[in-house]
Amino acid sequence: xxxxxxxxxxxxxxxxxxxxxxxxxxxxxxxxxxxxxxxxxxxxxxxxxxxxxxxxxxxxxxxxxxxxxxxxxxxxxxxxxxxxxxxxxxxxxxxxxxxxxxxxxxxxxxxxxxxxxxxxxxxxxxxxxxxxxxxxxxxxxxxxxxxxxxxxxxxxxxxxxxxxxxxxxxxxxxxxxxxxxxxxxxxxxxxxxxxxxxxxxxxxxxxxxx
Length: 210
Description:
Blueprint (H helix, E strand, L loop, with lengths): L2 H10 L1 H10 L12 H11 L4 H13 L17 H7 L3 H16 L5 H4 L4 H8 L7 H10 L12 H10 L8 H7 L7 H21 L1
Helix pairs in contact: 1-2, 2-12, 3-6, 8-9, 10-12
């Protein structure tokens, strides 16, 4: 993220200024080479699973498509639900992957070239039409794939937890409360979210050491 983001956050919010000083420069680097199709399949694979378990399932999934680093939507027609189930996907996740595929082929899920021309709200509106894909999943795509500057995932547990820690609150903020507070962070709310994630991580680490 840009030096302008750090300058803005430090100027408008003394707590953010303290986090920036303690944590250092924001190290968020989006994975811009992924297609929206790939990002959504990966997101569904990781839902409600530990990263290691999701990685094992995805490893078996990729082996179904020799010669490819990651399958294209057209490739999914060549594998059966039984094969996907054998990789470790639940029936609900298989249905979600099939819907991601269908909506990519029909154009609801935009291509990598198309998505960069759309606004955040347009992307959220289109991708949340896909089975198994909610607003949070799309916000993660906006942040970690597209590198959008002004996304505040107010439903995210880590962001809310980091806010509670950094701002010394007794309870986790409600999403609406967090969004209202975050108005002053615009247009750099993605960077603010990154610092709140780091604040949550630091609190977790400190707890382990006790």
